[in-house]
Design brief:
The protein has eleven helices and no strands. It has two domains: 3-111, no CATH class; 146-236, Tetratricopeptide repeat domain (Serine Threonine Protein Phosphatase 5, Tetratricopeptide repeat, Alpha Horseshoe). By secondary structure, it is mainly alpha-helical. Helix 1 (3-22) runs antiparallel to helix 3 (69-92).
Length: 239
């Protein structure tokens, strides 16, 4: 595949990821898992469509009838997983930091959507509360999110960050390991794991976490430098 075709392919995947993150399940179902070869405009959220999409249905494939609501809800997790897998594959082979950042942004949009609108809202409000230093409220919201949706990796990741801010490294590590059990390619959780392990003096384990991170996202800012510096320390200890 030529570099121009690769670029178009990546742009198309990013557009689909953003559409998937914003659109309701029955809109996503109309794509029929057809990943685009050309970039698409990212639409604003749209109301639930009629059974047969109109010609101006914002870049979705034409001539496909909308799937029933129940079927769309059942298929959405598998479809999102397939899209994430392809984005991860592109991320691992991205030619430069700019392309990697674009792909990562699409991946992180998908991370934020669990399939439960309530859990998504709890995490969004917890993030806002964290930004204004209302950590107790953020913790309550994230506790509710993980209880409601135990397989929501991003909720566990956000709670791990709160534990980290509270210097509660044991609980932070526990939540990060839960994230990685649910989403092994979660490079931000791997970065958090590496940082905490390094802080605790577990340098060999931290180095392994950085190596895993770089397999997923080789262009992640600062990761190679951190890995290389830590590797010198570990090898200097004769490990």
């Amino acid at each position: 595949m030529t570099s121009s075709n690769t670029r178009r392919r990546v742009s198309g995947l990013i557009s689909v990821a953003l559409v998937t993150a914003a659109a309701p399940a029955n809109v996503w179902a109309q794509t029929g898992l057809t990943l685009p070869d050309e970039p698409r405009a990212v639409p604003a959220p749209v109301p639930a469509p009629a059974p047969s999409p109109a010609p101006e249905s914002r870049g979705l494939p034409q001539g496909q009838k909308g799937a029933p609501q129940k079927e769309a809800q059942e298929d959405t997790p598998a479809q999102r997983t397939k899209l994430l897998d392809e984005l991860y594959a592109r991320l691992a082979t991205a030619p430069d930091e700019t392309t990697a950042a674009e792909i990562a942004a699409a991946v992180e949009q998908l991370w934020q959507h669990s399939g439960s609108a309530t859990a998504d809202l709890l995490v969004a409000r917890a993030t806002a509360a964290t930004e204004v230093q209302r950590r107790d409220l953020a913790m309550q919201l994230l506790n509710a999110a993980v209880e409601l949706q135990p397989d929501y990796a991003e909720a566990w990741n956000r709670r791990a960050y709160l534990f980290y801010l509270q210097n509660d490294y044991k609980r932070a590590l526990g939540d990060l390991r839960r994230v990685l059990a649910l989403e092994p390619h979660h490079y931000k959780a791997l970065e958090g794991l590496a940082n905490i392990l390094q802080h605790l003096g577990e340098k060999k384990a931290a180095l392994e976490a950085y190596e895993s991170l770089l397999k997923v996202n080789p262009n992640m800012p600062g990761a190679k430098k951190a890995r290389d510096e830590l590797k010198i320390e570990v090898e200097g200890q004769g490990i």
